[in-house]
Amino acid sequence: MSVLPTYTDVDPEKALKYAIQHIAGDRAEVIEGVITPASPGWADENVADLIREQLGSRMREQGWRAGSGNLDLPGSENFYIPDLAVVPAELAKTEGALLPDQTLLVVEVTSPSNADTDRTAKRKRYAQYGAPLYLLVDRQEDTCTLFSEPGQLGYTHIQGPYPFGTPVQLPEPFALTIDTSGF
Fold first, then answer.
1. What is the pLDDT of residues 38-76, one digit of tens each?
2. Is residue 112 helix, strand or coil?
3. How many angstroms separate the CA atoms of 37 and 171, rounded?
4. 12 — phi, psi (to 5°)?
5. Mean pLDDT estimate for the chain
6. pLDDT (tens digit, 9 = 90+) per residue, 141-160?
7. DSSP assignment of 46-65
8. I need a surface site. Which of 7, 50, 88, 127 has the fewest CB within 10 A?
9. pLDDT band at residue 10 using 50, 70 and 90 as cut-offs
10. Based on the number of CB atoms within 10 Å of its own CB, is 125 exposed (0-12), middle (13-18) or buried (19 or more)?
11. What b-and-e string marks burial along 19-43, b requiring 16 or more CB atoms within 10 Å of the CB?
């Protein structure tokens, strides 16, 4: 009879996040411990691109970059791929995941398969991990909501939900208005 080795020094969080990054492929995230494929459709990509275009001149002025790179939430079983995140240019060169508090803005665009996750779990976790601004583009409700002032219990300032077509004012450091009519 063979004896199976025991692994008592394995960190389950690290093992799960390693598996996501190296085995599950480039487009998978962990949401509350559940491995979830992150495969946005064209409608989601369209909204993210419209937002990126509107942020473009401000991003160039400030030396920021936008993308959908990995965000780690250390100490939890969460590892996210936002639809769009804006970060300082020097952080955009990072090979690994960034932390939510290193972002300037995180954008999630809902789809039928992830709307509840974006509305609840991600909203809560982005606040707990210090993402300063979280823009939720809810395509099922045709609304946009901007969350700011993060804390352990959630965001303390909420603007919206605004129906599509209503301009959304992003505060400093953006100080610009997002036109939502094309969403």
1. 777 889 899 999 999 999 999 999 999 999 989 999 999
2. coil
3. 32
4. -60, -35
5. 90
6. 999 999 999 999 999 999 99
7. HHHHHHHHHHHHHHHHHTEE
8. 7
9. low
10. buried
11. ebbeebeeebbbbeeeebebebeee
